[in-house]
Design a protein that fits this description.
With 664 residues, the protein is of the alpha/beta class. Among the domains are: 103 residues, no CATH class; 65 residues, Oligo-1,6-glucosidase, Domain 2 (Oligo-1,6-glucosidase, domain 2, Alpha-Beta Complex), CATH 3.90.400.10; 83 residues, Immunoglobulin-like, CATH 2.60.40. The protein is built from 24 helices and 25 strands. The protein has an eight-stranded parallel β-barrel with strand order 1-2-5-11-12-13-14-17. A six-stranded antiparallel β-sheet has the order 18-19-20-25-22-23, sandwiched between helices. Strands 7-9-8 form a three-stranded antiparallel β-sheet, with helices on one face. Strand 22 and strand 23 form a beta hairpin. The longest helix is centred in the N-terminal third of the chain and has 26 residues. The chain is globular, with a radius of gyration of 26 Å. The chain starts with a helix and ends with a strand. The structure holds alpha-D-glucopyranose (GLC) (2 copies).
Length: 664
């Protein structure tokens, strides 16, 4: 009776749903206590967990209710999720608990101007994890504070989609090393002040993951981990509203499995089986894998292919509201059991949809695919109108979040800009994408680019582009033609793009190889497991020989180009770290009055930096007055060239020059 009255009072204070959350916890608490007792958990572990539950359980409960509340066994699943979080926290190593504490008190740590990221394949860069440890100095020298290792988990034999067909999230591909190697590397990196980023491939597993194998053996429980259909009835209905992601691999989104005599949902390659998150057992199982990864010392999980994780008949099965809820629930579990962990969204979709994954309750950071695509667009057109128009209303993000700005990555370039943004400035999006594809495959007259098509769909005319940054920026063509002027322009294009990615707001991310001008590798076709996927053209082996001359003073041959690219990129990274105006996200565009010039102001904590970037191969000028109104005063200095300028006359930028202007 007294308890009932107490509950009524609580209810009045809290509101219905929070009260339900509170009740659910009351109901589950004995199970939690049992768990702690059985595990011999100490008082501090329990206490901290309780405090975090108090803070995050109501939100987690509300999401779980929305996702799975209609199930008769909802409470069982809720209990499993609570125990998964408890087990994750209990297993969290002490050094990581310390990191958690720091980050709880400094939640914007990743917004610092000191942040600079890199991404690489362990095998292509250093053979294996053990040998990668020898390169920590290289990362430090380059100024990296964030390192994304491309998927390094156990994979199926043969084609494994560059590691994205995972057969076990808890073991490392034996060719790359062992789990201990990974943990040792993680602590080496932590000691060097470098955050470790790994993939959380949550949309699918490989067809030889234990769960998939059990499903193949006829186990009903595990068949429900995936989307498996006895005949074409459901697949055909779904297919009406689905896109094709890899149309050259297979038409449609389903694959016939001979052994089971059934159809399986496979958005990507036929061996990548989509997980069924409408099943709460899948949610819980993946939450366990997530916390396992967090506890090996991962700082940031890159949430792979997030847009696809929830399916619903009659919809495109991309970017559904429930996909967001699943990630928000994972986020809450992380806040409770591994609060130092951040999520990075990989949603390479329409810009309106990309931004919906970004918030401190969902993914704190996200790839910025639209900026990436539009920087290349601006290089091709030599104009910044579409870029500026897009940035004017799409750069801003919620507090405590950041863009990850990149120029190239292991994937293709898709022209993900908004058709209305284009229409607003008189550009026909369809024609423009065709032009860009022609330009970047080198078919457009005068093009400097050496890209190749990826996933060309002859029905829709769709196509994406593969190629390394240097090859797309003209270096490959220039070296082949041995044309000094073209080489110069190509290098300048690369530095221009780096200069923007490092200054526009957010975390800059290099795809390693960019720092020395890595070119396309056409040999991938010799490996049958890679031949069908042109993305391998921009995934070559690291060429250390190009960097051998870094410390000597010989300046000739191809080595000197590499050296120049390396030293200039390194210098830009260092400079970024010395400019507090470059922290955070805030950016205001400047109307430069010149269609080739992008201009913006970065403001942080009273510090100000004005960036001007020339996307044309000719000199371009801007009125001094415009810069004075942008807050530069009468005299200012370019942090990159150290040249000073005044407002009395126009400021003239050299071909592809970028200026980082400080008031003097
Ligand atoms: C992501 C990866 C890509 C992979 C796909 C399927 O988009 O970046 O490389 O093919 O997911 O996992
Ligand atoms: C599509 C997907 C993206 C994936 C890419 C791989 O763009 O949206 O998630 O990285 O394909 O090519």
């Amino acid at each position: 009776m007294i308890e009932w009255m107490h509950n009524r009072l609580q209810l009045q204070k809290m509101g219905e749903q929070e009260f339900q959350a509170h009740l659910s916890l009351q109901r589950l608490r004995p199970r939690l206590e049992q768990f702690w007792d059985a595990q011999g958990a100490d008082a501090a572990t329990r206490h901290v967990f309780e405090l975090r539950l108090e803070q995050h359980w109501p939100a987690l409960f509300a999401i779980m209710l929305q996702l799975y509340g209609s199930r008769y066994d909802f409470f069982y699943h809720l209990e499993q999720v609570l125990l998964t979080a408890a087990a994750g926290w209990l297993a969290r190593p002490e050094p990581l608990r310390e990191v958690d504490e720091h980050r709880i008190h400094d939640p914007d740590w990743f917004l610092s101007e000191k942040m600079a990221g890199g991404a690489l394949y362990v095998d292509l860069f250093a053979e294996n994890l053990h040998r990668l440890r020898e390169h920590v100095d290289y990362f430090k020298r380059l100024g990296l504070t964030y390192l994304h290792l491309m998927p390094l988990f156990a994979v199926r034999p043969g084609n494994n989609d560059g590691g994205y067909a995972i057969s076990n999230y808890r073991s490392v591909d034996p060719r790359l090393g062992t789990f201990e190697d990974l943990q040792t590397l993680a602590s080496d990196l932590r000691a060097a002040g470098i955050s470790l980023v790994l993939d959380f491939v949550l949309n699918h597993t490989s067809d030889d993951h234990q769960w998939a194998k059990l499903a193949q053996a006829g186990d009903r429980e595990y068949q429900e981990f995936y989307y498996i259909f006895p005949d074409r009835t459901m697949p055909d209905q779904y297919e009406r509203t689905l896109r094709e992601i890899f149309p050259t691999v297979r038409r449609g989104n389903f694959t016939w499995h001979d052994g089971m005599q059934r159809w399986v949902w496979t958005t990507f390659n036929s061996f990548q089986w989509d997980l069924n998150y409408t099943n709460p057992a899948v949610f819980r199982a993946m939450a366990e894998e997530m916390l396992f990864l967090a506890n090996t010392g991962v700082d940031i999980l890159r949430l792979d292919a997030v847009a696809f994780i929830w399916k619903k008949l009659g919809t495109p099965c991309e970017n559904l509201p429930e996909a967001h809820l699943v990630i928000q629930a994972f986020n809450r579990i992380a806040r409770i059991a591994a609060p130092g962990l951040l999520f990075k969204s990989e949603a390479i979709v329409h810009p309106d949809d990309v931004v919906r994954y970004i918030s401190s309750q969902e993914c704190q950071i996200s790839y910025n695919p639209t900026l990436m695509a539009l920087l290349w667009e601006s290089l091709a057109t030599r104009k910044v109108s579409l870029l500026a128009r897009t940035l004017s209303h799409r750069h801003r993000l919620p507090p405590h979040t950041a863009w990850v700005n990149y120029l190239r990555c292991h994937d293709d370039i898709g022209w993900t800009f908004d058709d209305n943004d284009a229409a607003a400035i008189g550009i026909n999006a369809y024609d423009h994408r065709r032009f860009l594809n022609q330009f970047y495959t080198g078919q457009f007259p005068g093009s400097f680019a050496r890209g190749v098509p990826f996933q060309e769909n002859r029905e829709t005319g769709d196509m994406r582009i593969s190629g390394t940054m240097a090859s797309l920026a003209g270096l490959e063509q220039a070296i082949e033609e041995n044309d000094e002027q073209k080489k110069e322009l190509a290098i300048r294009r690369m530095l221009l793009l780096h200069g923007i990615s490092l200054s526009i707001g957010g975390i800059p991310l290099l795809y390693l190889g960019e720092e020395w001008g890595m070119l396309n590798d056409y040999d991938f076709v010799r490996d049958p497991a890679k031949a069908g996927d042109t993305r391998w053209i921009h995934r070559p082996r690291m060429r250390w020989e190009y960097l051998q001359s870094l410390d000597d003073h010989i300046d000739s041959g191809e080595g000197s180009i590499r050296k120049r690219i390396f030293l200039s990129t390194q210098r830009l990274i260092q400079l970024r770290k010395e400019l507090p105006a470059l922290a955070g996200q805030d950016m205001e565009l400047i109307s430069t009055g010149n269609e080739h010039l992008l201009g913006y102001v970065r403001l942080h904590d009273g510090h100000r930096l004005v960036v001007l970037a020339n996307f044309s191969p000719d000199p371009q000028g801007i009125e001094g007055n415009i810069l004075r109104t942008a807050g530069l005063g009468r005299f200012f200095e370019d942090a990159i060239s150290k040249r000073t300028y005044g407002t009395a006359e126009p400021v003239v930028l050299e071909p592809y020059q970028i200026l980082w202007l400080n008031r003097v």
